[in-house]
Specification:
By secondary structure, this protein is an alpha/beta fold. Helix content is about 35%, strand content about 15%.
Length: about 450
């Protein structure tokens, strides 16, 4: 009935709090019963071409090489990379499309593994954004603002719902190693104006998945604990005189780092994974830092209560050499992404795990630069319509939502704005997007700014 009783009471209290939304979230509970407990977001940085992966447009094959009609373009601004072209010729996809599953989803031949799980997915063909360049586009998808400085999605969730695991952070970022393309900045997973304890912890490949967690040579765990105890006393003394939330955030970060000395090696050790599971994710599953290994690690983190797991895979920006580029990226991502969905499903976790795949915008139906039908080419950025898919966590499976025009250039039915996407994600997690706010510089901010509506047509 001594220290053991206190520890048990604390664990039971945290367990009960987690059922209500987390041990230390500002909301103190959910706004409504959640369908999803966690999110795994497979972000494809660079703008994957929806016309070569998901959005089948036979008309482009018929009019390959013809000029994009002015009536279709509608005066839309173009980027500086193709805006000065004297010719903007339509470019058909060089890839064959087929329908798959009972749902009849159209998918490119580049995605044979995704095709096998098509009936578990919901394809949203009508995402749109205001961003036409990568920096603002990626920032918008990750924080609801084109300008850096706002909290990222995972930071908002940690702030609102708290952390249900003592030894792992609630927000983790994984980045595919050795990739080129547009750079990824830390503000994409930062806390913005929220306390810094809500920002993500990045896991890297190699012997030290989290920087500075392991003890340096000559420093024992006991020495580290003694150091942290002394540092905590100094911080508490500082807080008593200057009650700044960043001081308590610093204490929390040091303590989490100490606990991760045991939890991180365990979660990143794949030695207990059956060979059948490794084979499902593909030949790179045991190579730390690859997209395949990160997908498997995401499942292991989800099993241990991590609430928001963000994967970044770069190099989808194919202004030229599209055939080689998109074939390479699809080969790297198709099997692991499909395996993640299948793995979660067979473990009974897909029902309460929301999986998202998508980039910051799409690609144009016309060629960037000179075009000769049958030869390799590239596509420019296209914010007016692009495709993402979602699965699990309250999403209606086997669904294709929204409709684009026969040229694949404009939305004709059921557009989904970035703010709508965020509002729907929060709704599935039990949060009213209009009620999760933070007052900063005299204004109450939220992830969806002053916009956003729930996309009811994709809900199960």
């Amino acid at each position: 009935m001594g220290f053991g009783g206190l520890a048990l009471a604390d664990m039971l209290g945290r367990s009960a709090a987690a059922e209500q939304g987390g041990a230390d979230g500002v909301l103190g509970g959910f706004h409504h019963p959640p369908k999803a407990k966690r999110v795994i977001y497979l972000f494809q940085s660079g703008g994957p071409s929806q016309l070569d992966l998901y959005d089948h447009k036979p008309l482009l094959k018929q009019r390959d090489g013809e000029q994009l009609p002015d009536s279709v373009r509608g005066g839309q601004r173009l980027t500086g990379m193709s805006g000065n072209q004297s010719s903007i010729p339509l470019a058909a996809s060089p890839y064959a499309f087929s329908q798959y599953g009972d749902s009849g989803a159209w998918l490119s031949e580049l995605l044979p593994h995704t095709a096998k799980v098509a009936d578990r997915l919901c394809f949203i063909r009508t995402m749109y954004t205001e961003s036409i360049n990568h920096g603002p586009g990626v920032t918008f998808m990750q924080s609801g603002s084109q300008i850096p400085g706002r909290p990222s999605i995972g930071a908002w969730l940690d702030y609102g719902l708290g952390n249900e695991h003592d030894d792992l952070p609630s927000f983790v970022v994984l980045i595919t190693k050795n990739k080129g393309g547009q750079p990824l900045m830390s503000h994409l997973w930062g806390a913005g104006f929220l306390p810094t304890k809500h920002q993500a912890v990045r896991f890297r490949s190699g012997s030290d998945p989290v920087l500075y967690v392991n003890n340096p040579p000559g420093v024992s765990a006991a020495n580290r604990r003694q150091l942290l105890d002394g540092l905590r006393e100094l911080h508490e003394h500082q807080f008593a005189g200057t009650p700044d939330a960043e001081i308590t955030a610093r204490i929390a970060n040091y303590e989490m780092a100490f606990r991760m000395q045991a939890s991180v090696p365990e979660v990143t050790d794949f030695s207990n994974e059956p060979q059948s599971v490794l084979d499902m994710y593909g030949p790179n599953a045991k190579d730390p830092g690859t997209f395949a290994a990160n997908c498997l690690l995401a499942r292991r983190l989800a099993e241990r209560g991590v609430r928001f797991i963000q994967l970044y895979h770069q190099d989808w920006d194919h202004h030229g050499g599209l055939k080689g580029g998109i074939t390479r990226e699809a080969k790297e991502t198709d099997q692991p992404a499909a395996a993640l969905v299948q793995d979660l499903a067979q473990r009974g976790m897909l029902d309460d795990t929301l999986v998202v795949w998508g980039g910051e915008f799409g690609r144009t139906n016309y060629c960037q630069g000179l075009y000769k039908p049958g030869q390799d080419f590239g596509r420019d950025h296209h914010p007016r319509c692009f495709t993402i898919w979602m699965a699990g966590g309250g999403i209606k499976p086997g669904t294709t939502y929204g409709e684009t025009c026969e040229y694949g250039y404009n939305i004709v039915k059921d557009g989904v704005h970035v703010h709508d996407f965020h509002a729907t994600m929060l709704h599935l997690l039990g949060i009213d997007h209009e009620r999760l706010t933070y007052k900063f510089q005299g204004r109450r901010y939220r992830l969806t700014d002053v916009h956003g509506k729930i996309v009811k047509g994709i809900l199960a």
